[in-house]
Amino acid sequence: MALNNSNPNNYEYVTNHLEIHVLGGIKLNKLDSLRVTLSIQKPEQYNVVRQSIDLYNDNQIEKLVRKIAERLEIGTSVVRRTLQELTKELENYRFLLVEKETIANQPFYKELSATEIKEAETFLKSKDLLKKTNKLIGQSGVIGEENNRLTMYLIFTSRKTNNPLHCISLGSSGAGKTHLQSSIALLMPEEDVIEVTNLSANALYYFAQKELCHKIIIIEDMDGAMSVLYPLREIASKKRITKTVVHKNAKGETKTIHLTVEGPVCIAGATTQESIYEDNSNRSFLLYIDESEEQDKKIMQYQRLISAGKVNEDEEHKARELLKNVQRVLKPIKVINPFAEFLELPQSVFKPRRTNSHYLQFIEAITFYKQYRRSTQYDKDTGEEYIETTIEDIEEANELIIDVLLRKSDTLTGACRNHLENLKDYLIKNNQTTFTNAEIRRRLRVKETTLRRYNTQLLEENYIQRVKAKTKSYAYEIVEMGEYENLKKQIDKALRNCIDNIKVAS
Prior knowledge:
Layout lengths: L9 E5 L4 E5 L11 E7 L6 E7 L3 H15 L3 H29 L9 H11 L4 H11 L6 H12 L9 E4 L6 H9 L7 E4 L18 E5 L9 H10 L1 E9 L5 E9 L2 E7 L6 H4 L3 E4 L4 H15 L5 H17 L4 E3 L15 H18 L7 E2 L6 E4 L2 H18 L5 H16 L4 E2 L1 H7 L4 H13 L3 E4 L7 E4 L4 H23 L1
Parallel strand pairs: 5-10, 5-11, 6-7, 7-10, 12-14
Antiparallel strand pairs: 1-2, 2-3, 3-4, 8-9, 13-14, 15-17, 16-17
């Protein structure tokens, strides 16, 4: 009789002589053994033999045959034949289960139809591609954050190149850091995104060697990846990580093996604590979330529209699917920037070597994304295909990256800088030059501990200074109101000079 597997925790195998139940089903992880727990009795009788056994072990089988024959008063040949037939049925069923599990666990790869391919390629060939892409990102449901969302989209696109970029979203709790990166991740093909909430210290080393190649690793909160920050930095910089571990083989022999996981990968994370992740931040674009009142109003209005049922979810879905398909039709191709030697960063930028590399890679990411608008060229010596960066690509990169460079040139952390700029706006609005802690806590609604931390940093960096006050408490004044605007003008001028030099040389 065939095996009855309708109950996954209690398979039944009934013959004219024996009724056998396989309790707890079968395990799929070790195919070199077939360990089961059997409940065996004669049909319509209550005398039961229960035994855990490996059906691939002849010695165990012979002992069980004799035990069943003696206990149930049945011939050994009948028991032996029944167990052999059961073993064959279980073996065949396990192969079916393993095959189903293998198919179920295969990475999802969407096969695009001819219509979808044509639509995606037509979009990529369109004029003002970055503007249209940004508009489509907005139509997909990403509200506001125009610069950040397009920059992140291009950073995620760079995963398909040999030098991917990385980003960290920064902002206060509840500002929408995780929401932004999750929303942009939804615009990427599912097969290219790995989202994690928590990573153990050795988790990265146990991926298959090529499993992470050209993937995006989304970390919902960097606090959940504290133990794996070092391997994340290494795979970001060196594009591979290796760990040596001790392993016992099937014979019990101890051997040293090397676990190697290869990149390149694109890594994105979100955190409120910029200073804690400085080593990782140096390897990443820092995207500061817009926490302005205007952005708050946009988000809350969108939330109200959703609640009122006035958001066209079909249009949002179509926009997401088109952007996913756009990503799928992008092909690996080398990018050459003939203007790279003219691109000099302003002297105010900290860690200029790494920032300069990021700047050049970002320009290459834009060129890569616009590959359908570029004519393919061939290296005369190697025959390798490549496309070239244009001045337009550099101008668009400069427009998007100026905020990133501005933050890279600032001696203050992002949160402290935001506080200082809010403080300036408050003083200008109220026609004041000095302020007290009590006043700022009350008017700007800043916690005492947070304000004390900001003041410490601002005093150390000489952005504010103490002044005499009429009361016993301290008063403060800002040393230079226009310093941040001057820094921005300096960076903007340096970037414009690069474009002017290229045009002169051309």
